[in-house]
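The instructor's notes for this session suggest beginning with a concrete chain rather than abstract definitions. Hand out the sequence below and ask the class to guess, before any prediction is shown, which regions might be ordered.
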Amino acid sequence: MPSQSHPPDGLVDKLAHELHVHQIELESQNEELRRTKSDLSAARDRYQDLFDFAPVGYFTLDRSGVILECNRAGATLVGARRAELKGCSFSRFVSPSDSDRWHLYTRKVLGEEGPQRIELALQRVDSPDTWHGQIDCQQMTLPGQEPALWVTLTDVTERFRAGIDQRVAAQDADAREAERQRVALALHEDLGQRLSALKMELVSLSSGQESEVYRERLGGLLASLDDAVSTVRRITQELRPPMLNDLGLAAAIEWLVHDIARRVELSFTLSLDAVAPDLGEQTRLALYRFVQQAIALLVLDAGSTELHIGTHCGPDHFVLVLRSRWQQQATPGTPPLDPEAARILEHRARAMGGRLAIDLPRDPLGWIHLELFMPLTKPQHTDTGHGDAR
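After discussion, reveal the predicted structure:
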């Protein structure tokens, strides 16, 4: 019977040791894999939470515009449950008036790189009302998957309505300006000429009268007529100052301040740029109306007795500075400028595309400081007569 061979001394122990080492390494690697899996699961959950609870709507669409996935905000925006949206075409929520734009937009996204933006009229499932959404869309391709469209949807209805309100307000302002022009023309051409004709008739009657009383009464009537003609001329100038187009903004501001100073107690200084770029008729008129309203609020309403107006014109911007204060102590508790008046001025500045900074003094005798910064663009049309040079 052959003898059995035995492994060398220590070989079994060595193999057992190596197996034990490999076992420890495998257990360590397995633990590392479990930690990695846990981290990936946590990251996925965080991403899912960010996706689900984002304040804007997220959609994933296929190339045909069919919804593959959406978050809670997206489902809320379109007024449907998430389970109902999967497999539904996104075009279902686009208003019929914008369906063609949506179709052309998706073709553009599929044909170009990078995100594309559009604003569309949309409809909810649970409401017949139309709302407006901003859509940011980009085509994305993940490894091993078909190309998809990633869509971000934001409700911009309030912004859209504000834009409409701004356009309506601009049209309304244009209509009021046209009405001012019509009234100014009527005052000048009709009432002014009638008063002048009446004055000439009275002058002709005075030549044949000897009575001193009669001449005194007639002189009083002529003086009243002169005042009426001056008033008509002043109102006409305020409604539509002809020098605004003839001599420019600086001349119109100077006339306005002098005219107000003749009627109220006001000391003033002016520092107006002698030469200004061609602002265009609409911008020039808007700036004049701003100055007119600011002076009315500061002087006629707030009662300021000192006024400074300065302008600075750069190649691409216009800066208007108004400073006013009382020469003596104001009534205790009187605010330096009515908050509602300040909001009116700020609104007018924004409507012009400018930015108004208001600095109110702590000292009752300090200066109220208003600074309007307005970027300039090329005027819509150029007047043929005069620019804005003094």
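Then share the key points. The beta strands are 57-61, 67-70, 116-124, 127-140, 148-155, 267-271, 306-313, 317-325, 355-359, 368-375. The two ends are 132 Å apart (CA to CA).
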